[in-house]
Amino acid sequence: MEILKRSSEVWLRELLSNLDTFWETVESDISKNDDGASYLIGLQRCIFNFLSTALTGANPSVSPDIAENGWKMLDKWLAIQVIPTTKIGILQPFEEIFLHSWAYPFFLVAGDYQKLYNFISENAGDVIRLGDEEYGLTRDETVHNLIFVLGFNAYGGFSVFLPSLIGRIAGDTSGLQERLRTEVRKVCGSGSVLNFRTVNEMELVKSVVYETLRLNPPVPLQYARARGDFKISSHDAVYEVKKGELLCGYQPLVMRDANIFEDPEEFKPDRFVGQTGSKLLNYLFWSNGPQTGTPSESNKQCAAKDMVTITAALIIANLFLRYDKITGDAGSIKTVVKAT
């Protein structure tokens, strides 16, 4: 939480700066390919550069290797941790036998991890000092924790979530883009600038973010062991849970509850708009707790849940300040029409 507070001063600046580079790359790639351009690599590079600077204070530009390949290093490190628990969809039982039966050895990514370790250790001085002076951590402990927060929590989550958000907007044919564009430019018109305050006034933009998280939570599964005996209730039943039992929460199922969400399988961009919509945030559990909850050590809710949603809203707002319209899907952008 302390890192997030310290990063708030540079968060917006770094996000918008890296988005400028990202969209310029997309435009260049589209101009060279009539069929559009894949944006996933550029998006991951954008996310990595932005988060590295904002969270750790280590700017990848000081290291050509990290600036060019840091996102790849994190991808490989994440892959060997996630694949054993992820459904790939290949012929069973071979997937279970060859992919899900053991943990992958660290030596597969040890070299890249060491490069990331050295980069953070040499360039995240202020945050490393914070770990030492405020929390009594050694340099080694602080750097490993920073890599985990940067790589697994932040970069990994955004890498899964943002393509679904961009794809949802780019592929829409219902007039949503026009509505988003109108809201963004109304709020940011008359001399206002895009910042945390103005984006918080964009009710439809935020609702689109929430609805995307409802249908496509970046981390669908959570596991925990019961600390004591207790009872858990559904709409029509009560279940006894014993101390030590392993529990699994599957968010996509929870957030498609027809007793809570009308037409739960349908994407409704304004579902969370207005007083009625705001009440539904009590049942939006993408962050391992309700959107209206407060993260703490005891509840294990995503510490950056509010930064995730406001950052996603900033990305949408930035998109519609730059463009009148885009077309594409979760993997590529076909066309962009610059703002007039």
Automatic annotation (TrEMBL):
Entry annotated with the keyword Iron: yes
GO biological process, one term: sterol metabolic process
Entry superkingdom: Eukaryota
Pfam families for the chain: p450 (PF00067)
Annotated heme binding sites: 302
A GO molecular-function annotation: heme binding
Cofactor(s) required for function per UniProt: heme
InterPro entries: Cyt_P450 (IPR001128), Cyt_P450_E_grp-IV (IPR002403), Cyt_P450_sf (IPR036396)
Gene3D superfamilies xrefs: Cytochrome P450
Keywords: Heme, Iron, Metal-binding
SUPFAM superfamilies associated with the record: Cytochrome P450
Family: Belongs to the cytochrome P450 family.
This protein's name: Uncharacterized protein
Native source organism of the sequence: Brassica oleracea var. oleracea
UniProt lineage: Eukaryota, Viridiplantae, Streptophyta, Embryophyta, Tracheophyta
